């Protein structure tokens, strides 16, 4: 059987300490009591806030002294109940010995092989219909990431809420798990659709000129589940409220990057992670993508404009989704790479004999003339198959500083 990790609860400590304060007997005892109570009420939120802040700062992502930052994307785990949940679409001889535990084993192998700095789960983390207890399934699904002590982030797919928790409930449960940087929604935004819209900043190397700047920006969005508009069939989409939050966030990050100290001319590259592919994923064929397309693009049946919003914002260089397990390609449209990860989980539909897989992205910093670390020079990607050797395939450059600089130059000369 699978053992489910329970998430810890860290509160109330300040309260007990406050109560233990000795009260000296004096005529104005009542006044003293009032003062102590008021003081502890005043201190409590400060202590909690300080602890939270410290936690956030400890977890702040940044490039290490290798000058690289690596992200492992796990798409569509479709976790059920663990060992009793069988694999789908494996070869007949593989069937008897295959379960959700193979999904966990694959994550574990990927972590050992790649030693990523961040693990991103792009939805359908659990397959709700086959998960008896959503919380237990989520705990088990994320357990390999949690025990690795590597920070991780997750967004929702269209199946995560089909068990015992609502979409909000699933996201709330996720943010309570250990080592996660996931957020239910941005704290400074009052109205936003969905659950699990947030961004993470990746700082430059400690001790370098960019130690206080975010040199890589990660955006996470909830692409919804199903349309709730009767006249529009099919999957959900990224709503205007989410796009507005993205616009504001992108603009703020670009402003900070271009301001003192060390003001930059270009914006820091951004990467966006969500579950359901955008309609623009259908713009390619095998002549202009790397990877394979073995099924249709299951985006929403309407285009809510998020691709255009990203092109306009200008900082996002690549988008990573899951949802279509048999597609694992990456193609470029208008300066943005649109990439699938390919199906990861064994209780997800797949293709017998076609390995489950994961996508890896690595951003590399440029060396400055003085020998220190600068800003991002290139962003590369490949996939690994869950075969004997974890074979790496389809290596490609997603973005590089020089090529985008050249393109800009050509445009200005032409004008
Ligand atoms: C699933 O895991 C079992 C136990 O480690 C292993 O024997 C089997 O080959 C795995 N199946 C697949 C399809 O990887
Ligand atoms: C980053 O911030 C810290 C703390 O404010 C400061 O001591 C340090 O000099 C800053 N580094 C750079 C490169 O600006
Ligand atoms: C990819 O190539 C096909 C023709 O083979 C073309 O119709 C399509 O527009 C191209 N897509 C992009 C994004 O360049």
UniProtKB/TrEMBL annotation:
Gene Ontology CC entries for this record: cytoplasm; extracellular region
GO molecular function, one term: hydrolase activity, acting on ester bonds
Key words, A-Z: Membrane, Transmembrane, Transmembrane helix
Transmembrane segments: 29-51
Annotated InterPro entries: Calcineurin-like_PHP, Metallo-depent_PP-like, PAP14/16/28/29
Residue span(s) of domain Calcineurin-like phosphoesterase: 69-325
PANTHER family: PHOSPHATASE DCR2-RELATED, PHOSPHATASE DCR2-RELATED-RELATED
Listed name of the protein: Probable inactive purple acid phosphatase 29
